[in-house]
Amino acid sequence: MKTRHFFWRLILYRPGLYLLNLLAWSLIHMAPLVPGLLTKAFFDHLEGTYTFPYGVWAIAVLLIGAALARIALIYGGFMTDVHFRFRISTLLRRNMLSHVMKEPGARAIPCSPGEAISNFRDDVDQAEEATSWSVDTLGLIGFVMVASWILISIDLQLTILVFVPLILVVTAAQIATARIQKYRAASRESTAKVTGAISEMFANVQAIQVAGAEKRVVDRFVSLSEKRRQSMVKDKLLTETLSSIFTNSVNLGTGLILVLASFKMRNGDFTVGDLSLFVYYLTFVTQLISNVGNFMTYYKQMAVSFQRIKTMLQGAPASLLTAANYIGIGRVKGKRRSHGEETGSRVAERDPEAVGMMENSAISMAEDGVERTYIQAPPLSILEVRGLSYQYPETGRGISDIDFTLKRGSFTVVTGMIGSGKTTLVRTLLGLLPAEAGEIRWNGEKVAEPADFFIPPQSAYTAQIPRLYSDKLRNNILLGISEQPGSLDRALYAAVMEDDMKHLEYGLETMVGPRGVKLSGGQAQRTAAARMLVRDAQLYVFDDLSSALDVETERKLWERLFRDRDGATCLVVSHRKAALHHADHIIVLNGGVIEAEGTAEQLLRSSESFRQLWYGEETG
Ligand SMILES: Nc1ncnc2c1ncn2[C@@H]1O[C@H](COP(=O)(O)OP(=O)(O)OP(=O)(O)O)[C@@H](O)[C@H]1O
């Protein structure tokens, strides 16, 4: 998609509102035609070359009326502009966010969080600005056309002099266009880097202190800021230079008009009223010139922002950005889709085989009027994984050709040395990383979109590094689902948190995270486990939950899980004996492939890697 298509599609999101905005600003910019003519009449009346039928005071009253009418128009114009701008930028941000949410979770954004924030904030603002400025330009062109016609009918020569600066400015801006793009891209890039560095610094204060790396971190920040300063100065300098060209060329035009008019007035060809009209209109022509310049600059800057926003899509079509979607204002438009229509077609497009399973999908309508699709598959009896592969583009490492089967109620442990691919395996299975090859079958039916499918009630997952929010413990566990009687207590018990709860003064109401109580690594992991266990699921996936749990706590956790959740199927990444002992089946990974599998007993006899892991734990 080209920038102009993007621009056009943004306008088409709310064409009615855009036209209203265009009309409002056209009237605002054309309104000065009236006081210009009234001023001419005023001076001509005083000079005696023309007689206004209702006298000078009537002209004064009309001038005040025109000013008041313009004030009212400007008020209306701001209302339409704000409504249009807000909708455009909200739509863009909504569509970007929706895409980020659909990307495989572990690769949701292709850049640092700081850069993503800059894309969401600055680049969207740029697109909003360019679309909004377009109405001024069109309105002012309307003014210039009518004004030119009036001025030409008074004096052709002088009229041309008014427009010469305009031609100069447009040419200058065109020449500078390529440079603006380059400097703007560099300044946006350097700003994103500085924002990224700040967010990394705040996130890693402890690591920086422990490593005694304060000076190096500050030096890096200073060097990034210096680069930003240089690119910003270049960007601003060029923008301001252009703006000064816009203004000064008009001043030059005014001077020329004055010199020329003085000759004409001496000859009696030109009245004081004519001069006032020329000078009055010229002010608004100045506005047109700077507006055209601004619009061109904003448009070019939008082209840069558009490219940056597109990278967020990671190859998805850019038309997603401008797709007409509900943005939370007004009522949801159009017919509500029936149950199978959305999920059925969405899945059918990708894989006709998978449609059967999706017959069990359900759509719920939340209070905000947004439809959300939940897939409800039949209870798990067997999960088959065949040929699953994923390689990180950056390192070429990952997993390849992974086969395994999980039966209902089984406890399977994935183990292996550091970097052997355990996390990659579970993330690819769950759709958090996009599988490059292989298939997953749930009760024999192919799972078309693992990311949409492996969520409650099918599966629940605890990542290796738990992510908690600055919120109450209760909200961190529930994370949006409604509490059922006893559900939180059961989850806390299963996650072996009962002792921790006794020590937290405010219990479930305790604020945790950066703005509250700092939980220990083990507590954070158990909170994440409780978050998983409060959601009843068929398949529980734990990624190295045990790394921050002591042996006794971990033993209790597995015991409770088995006792209270009969039939739950578990896939657990671990190298701990507590988990390996429980396992019906163990998969040993090495270099991203399955090196051996079997029970602990079998593997102790057959696998050297497994023996190292097993005995390594005793010595380690
Ligand atoms: N985001 C990433 N980008 C590039 N390479 C990665 C990325 N994450 C992991 N890798 C590489 O992929 C391989 C498998 O990593 P993975 O995290 O799956 O191993 P693991 O067995 O879970 O390790 P650990 O026991 O430390 O958790 C490693 O060689 C690692 O360096």
From TrEMBL:
It is found in: Cell membrane. Residues 383-616 form the ABC transporter domain. SUPFAM superfamilies: ABC transporter transmembrane region (SSF90123), P-loop containing nucleoside triphosphate hydrolases (SSF52540). One of its GO terms (cellular component) is plasma membrane. The keyword Mitochondrion does not apply. Gene3D superfamilies: ABC transporter type 1, transmembrane domain, P-loop containing nucleotide triphosphate hydrolases. The chain crosses the membrane at residues 12-34, 54-78, 133-152, 158-178, 237-263, 278-299. It is a multi-pass membrane protein. Pfam families: ABC_membrane (PF00664), ABC_tran (PF00005). Keywords: ATP-binding, Membrane, Nucleotide-binding, Transmembrane, Transmembrane helix. GO terms for molecular function: ABC-type transporter activity; ATP binding; ATP hydrolysis activity. This is ABC transporter ATP-binding protein. The lineage of its organism: Bacteria, Bacillati, Bacillota, Bacilli, Bacillales.
